[in-house]
């Protein structure tokens, strides 16, 4: 299976849809791991309500309560019939495991669907007559719990954040039925599956997050790939996945100096066997059961569901002890008929019992290597994943197939529980622009052949995320059957071929059917089109096309004239070519699921209705219990405070005797009512009872709070009044000074007007006078009752704070007001300047003339005096 998803490209393509928090889910047969992808939240696993990093993959009912996780696991001993473990191997399947795993075994319905009968002693809210659950519906129950945990973590201030997008891991060998059933469960909870990657792929991504790999160029074959085998042994399956890693570097553009490095992760093959930790648990349980029967002669214990549930729990505990020790004590209290069971079990006993099937733990390694056409010599390391890899007998099985030559290749360098979900979360983060991620190209491949009418269509090893078309004869309506691994999965039927042929004019019509093997491993129809099977030669091909390709850039310039001259001919040819375009007629088609019956739309609506009814009932019950607990706690607190001998005297000191009597009577009455109606009262009734008592307590609480806060409020108010008066006095002085300066101002030398208007200063002055009268009146009365704590105050903190803040904001607004600027000086106009200059010149000319007159007279006299000369 192959995804060709370059994560750096997906940052651009998918980012608009991936902006909110994303939940990664690694759903296992026994345990589930969750991780949240959100800015500001560390990439780590999500804890369950018991602060566990691993969540039990189970849903149970305790009487009428639906429970999950560790609580659900613990409920199996008391309510085995409403306990639903190990749902994963039943998803999208019609085969029930032969192992005795289910206290309430499932059965096959008439339509071949696996169903669980829900016990009548555990009634469901909003019952619609349906008393069965499908594996898909039970998985949807658990997904609802996972989502609640993640939304609580993603939220802030106690308010959950809605999550609607998920990235999930599935076994790489899962078929279309199983993947579709998982997606149906997600859709039942309103979740969008952004991606569905293999569990081995998740581990590989986690391994690649912080490591460098050798360079390799697929085009030239230069360099080398690094091959690793991921060995995953879980609760019910053991899987081996062969993965190739390498790195490519390229420059984004010729001017770049720093290359971009991309790590490629290519999942080549997988092999798997249906054996895991549960097989060990059952072997240990059988050993303990036989030992108990031998010691007590109570053979009927094998039919007691509660006794078997207790032995299951003890067997799992013993298995973990034997993983590190040679022997373990066994201790089960009141196992059967009040008989306590105590014994011992050795690791050797377990290994002897498992000897016949131990080789199955190593078989997936050989299968995966054969499919990848590799040998152990090509493998760099064998990476252990899964809790069952801690068991010595499993490690021994792996070492036996590796041999002494390759035994040192076993690596325990990833978290055996969390690597898959952290890898999935890392992949989900790569789908968002909100994170700066290492560039990764992930390739997954189909692990089985997809065939069409018996012929291979998508061969084993084909990459996911690709399309392929097939040509079929166009006669009557066509029915095509697709299979995966030899099992029918899909029937595609065209609906209107004869009608389309009636209007089809091109020769040799055929039907082109295009299918897509999407990134989630789901085969679906893209389209069906009626086309002609005759292909015309491209006019740009042949000799003319070849000659045209011989011209270089300069030659192209030489032929531009010829091409321009042929424009008109070309246009005519283009018009003809338009008419010769291949004729296409879209056909209607319909898909029919084959094999395992999928969940229909009507069934989804019914399941969603049931799930919604359960969720609503749980929410109402939670709210009612919260209201009851609050009321009960409130009653106990008041009873203590009303006790005359209590050390906390506030309630007594600030209340009158009549008020205390009224409260005591109401508290006693409410206690009596609660003892009779605690289990049946509604949330509304419980809240009403509490509000009735709070109404009596409220005046007392006000007096106490006012006594605590009034002194500080008065002090703050007085400071605000002082600041207001100081501001008003300074502002009035500045205003007076500005008005005086304005009297001596002229247009040529103007001055700035006052900063504050008379109206503004008047408003401050009026506010100060009003507040002064108000506070003096109230304080005069308050002083008289200050020593009597049972009196309601005359002046309240709230009123003081409101008036102080209003005065403060008024003064600050004026202080922050920008001071007005002085107007620009008035300059003399050009005409007046010319007139002044002319007047000055005339005055100067007159003065000069007067100065010259005596001189001229003197000269005239001199000429007369010497006239005779």
Automatic annotation (TrEMBL):
Keyword Chaperone: yes
GO biological process annotation, one example: endoplasmic reticulum unfolded protein response
Principal location listed in the UniProt entry: endoplasmic reticulum
Keyword Ligase on entry: no
UniProt keyword terms in alphabetical order: ATP-binding, Chaperone, Nucleotide-binding, Signal
Alphabetized PROSITE patterns for the sequence: HSP70_3
SUPFAM superfamilies: Actin-like ATPase domain, Heat shock protein 70kD (HSP70), C-terminal subdomain
Signal peptide residue numbers: 1-20
Domain of life per record: Eukaryota
Compositionally skewed regions (Basic and acidic residues) per UniProt: 567-584
Region Disordered, annotated ranges: 558-584, 815-869
Protein name per its UniProtKB record: Hsp70 protein-domain-containing protein
């Amino acid at each position: 299976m192959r995804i060709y998803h370059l994560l750096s490209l997906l940052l651009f393509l998918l980012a608009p849809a991936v902006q909110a928090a994303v939940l990664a889910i690694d759903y296992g047969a026994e345990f589930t791991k969750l991780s949240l992808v959100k800015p500001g939240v560390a990439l780590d696993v999500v804890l369950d309500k018991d602060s566990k990093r691993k969540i039990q993959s189970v849903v149970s009912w305790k009487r009428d309560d639906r429970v999950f996780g560790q609580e659900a696991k613990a409920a199996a001993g008391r309510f085995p019939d409403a306990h639903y473990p190990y749902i994963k191997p039943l998803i999208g399947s019609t085969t029930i495991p032969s192992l005795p795993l289910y206290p309430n075994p499932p059965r096959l319905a008439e339509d071949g669907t696996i169903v669980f009968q829900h016990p009548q002693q555990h009634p469901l809210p909003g019952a619609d007559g349906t008393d069965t659950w499908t594996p898909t519906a039970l998985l949807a129950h658990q997904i609802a719990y996972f989502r609640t945990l993640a939304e609580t973590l993603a939220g802030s201030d106690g308010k959950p954040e809605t999550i609607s997008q998920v990235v999930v891991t599935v076994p790489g060998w899962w078929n279309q039925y199983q993947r579709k059933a998982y997606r149906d469960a997600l859709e039942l909870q309103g979740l969008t599956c952004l991606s569905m990657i293999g569990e081995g792929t998740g581990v590989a991504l986690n391994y690649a997050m912080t490591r460098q790999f050798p360079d390799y160029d697929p085009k030239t074959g230069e360099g080398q790939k690094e091959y690793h085998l991921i060995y995953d042994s879980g609760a019910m399956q053991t899987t081996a996945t062969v993965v190739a890693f390498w790195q490519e570097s390229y420059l984004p553009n010729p001017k770049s100096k720093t290359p971009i490095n991309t790590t490629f992760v290519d999942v080549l093959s997988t092999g798997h066997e249906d054996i895991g930790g549960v097989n060990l648990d059952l072997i240990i349980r059988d050993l303990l059961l036989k030992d108990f029967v031998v010691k007590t002669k109570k053979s009927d214990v094998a039919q007691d569901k509660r006794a078997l549930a207790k032995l299951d729990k003890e067997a799992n505990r013993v298995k973990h002890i034997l993983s590190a020790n040679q022997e373990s004590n066994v201790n089960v209290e009141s196992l059967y008929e009040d008989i306590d069971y105590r014994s011992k079990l050795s690791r050797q006993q377990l290994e002897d019992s498992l000897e016949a099937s131990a080789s199955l733990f190593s078989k997936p390694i050989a299968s995966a290597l054969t499919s990848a056409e590799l040998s152990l010599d090509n493998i760099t390391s064998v990476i252990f994943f899964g809790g069952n890899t801690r068991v010595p007998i499993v490690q021994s099985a792996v070492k036996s197939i590796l041999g002494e030559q390759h035994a040192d290749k076993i690596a325990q360098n990833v978290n055996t529980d969390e690597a898959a979900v952290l890898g999935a979360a890392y992949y989900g983060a790569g789908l968002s622009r909100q994170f700066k991620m290492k560039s990764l190209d992930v390739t997954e491949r189909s692990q089985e052949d997809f065939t069409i009418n018996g012929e291979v269509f998508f061969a084993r090893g084909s990459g996911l995320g690709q399309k392929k078309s097939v040509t079929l004869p166009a006669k009557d309506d066509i029915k095509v059957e697709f299979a995966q691994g030899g099992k029918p999965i899909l029937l595609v039927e065209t609906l209107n071929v004869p009608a389309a042929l009636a209007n089809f004019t091109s020769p040799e019509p055929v039907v082109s059917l295009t299918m897509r093997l999407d990134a989630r491993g789901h085969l679906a129809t893209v389209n069906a089109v009626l086309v002609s099977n005759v292909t015309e030669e491209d006019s740009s091909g042949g000799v003319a096309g070849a000659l045209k390709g011989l011209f270089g850039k300069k030659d192209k310039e030489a032929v531009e004239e010829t091409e321009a001259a042929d424009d008109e001919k070309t246009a005519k040819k283009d018009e003809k070519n338009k008419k010769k375009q291949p004729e296409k007629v879209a056909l209607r088609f319909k898909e029919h699921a084959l094999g395992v019956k999928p969940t229909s739309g009507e069934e989804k609506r019914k399941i969603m209705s049931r799930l919604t009814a359960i969720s609503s009932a749980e929410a109402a019950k939670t709210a009612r219990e919260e209201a009851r607990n609050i009321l009960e706690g409130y009653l106990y607190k008041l009873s203590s405070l009303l006790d005359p001998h209590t050390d906390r005297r506030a309630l007594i000191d600030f209340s009158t005797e009549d008020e205390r009597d009224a409260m005591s009577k109401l508290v006693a009455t409410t206690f009596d009512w609660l003892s009779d109606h605690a289990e049946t009262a509604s949330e509304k009734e419980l809240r009403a009872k509490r509000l009735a008592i709070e109404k009596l307590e409220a005046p007392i609480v006000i007096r106490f709070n006012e006594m605590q806060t009034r002194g500080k409020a008065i002090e703050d108010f007085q400071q605000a009044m002082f600041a207001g008066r100081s501001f008003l006095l300074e502002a009035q002085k500045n205003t007076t000074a500005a008005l005086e300066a304005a009297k001596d101002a002229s247009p040529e030398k103007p001055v700035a007007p006052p900063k504050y208007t008379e109206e503004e200063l008047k408003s401050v002055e009026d506010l100060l006078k009003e507040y002064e009268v108000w506070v003096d009146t109230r304080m005069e009365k308050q002083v008289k009752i200050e020593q009597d704590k049972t009196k309601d105050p005359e002046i309240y903190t709230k009123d003081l704070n409101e008036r102080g803040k209003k005065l403060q904001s008024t003064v600050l607004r004026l202080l922050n007001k920008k001071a007005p600027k002085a107007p620009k000086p008035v300059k003399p106009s050009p005409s007046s300047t010319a007139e002044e200059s002319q007047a000055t010149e005339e005055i100067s000319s007159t003065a000069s003339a007067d100065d010259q007159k005596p001189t001229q007279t003197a000269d005239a006299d001199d000429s007369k005096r010497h006239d005779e000369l």
